[in-house]
Design goal:
alpha/beta, DNA polymerase, domain 1, two-stranded antiparallel sheet, 36% helix
Amino acid sequence: MVSFADRDDVNITRSTPVWLFDLDNTLHNASHAIFPAIMAGMNRYLARLLGDGVTPASDDVVNATRTMYWQRYGATTLGVVKHHGVSAAHFLDETHRFDDLQAMIRAERGLRQLLRRLPGRKILLTNAPHRYSTQVLRHLGLHRHFNHHVAVEAMTVHRQMRPKPSKLLLRRLMRRHQLAPSRCILVEDTLVNLRAARELGMRTAWITQYLTIGDSAGLAHPQKRLIRPAYVDVKVKSVRNLPARLHHLR
């Protein structure tokens, strides 16, 4: 069962859009400092996990394993749980510890005004853990602008973790809120997640400004022009460009 906060707008109608926002590298620049810190935490965890109990696993083994889990499951956490019997809560807690998270956050100004300008409900849909994503939202002053907050711990279907890009997760979300896919707009930096949403009939907006070489979206050479795939309805540099492209998302 996917868990959600129970806070609905009283004036929402069935004709208004529902925005599903990713968090990292969509609403803020996680590549600046947060992703490197998480990556280092995951590498330390995996080195211990994959080692022989005395000697940690090599960097090559760790990097290959982490990349394989992300590509296969959409979240390294799911790979660790499936293949090593590790508690998801323990892995997430160990890999999302920061000395000063607020100092690491980089984001554009005007995000609160942006969310107010976009018609319809907003749902945060993030493969990040709840504690971390709540801290980022509060620092950005955005927590009051989301009707629901779906973090990775809540992405379970039939007692199994199903993070993005799971279609089972997206279908459960739509059933839970009685949403037609055509009402939903997924706003993301990660193409595989956008493709899954589009295959279910959702509309899609691709945010590109925080993409970096070797990032989780699987893209390289960001200095070159990023071609919009057919399953992406709108490609924009920043979420702040969404109001101007709203007519392409209706």
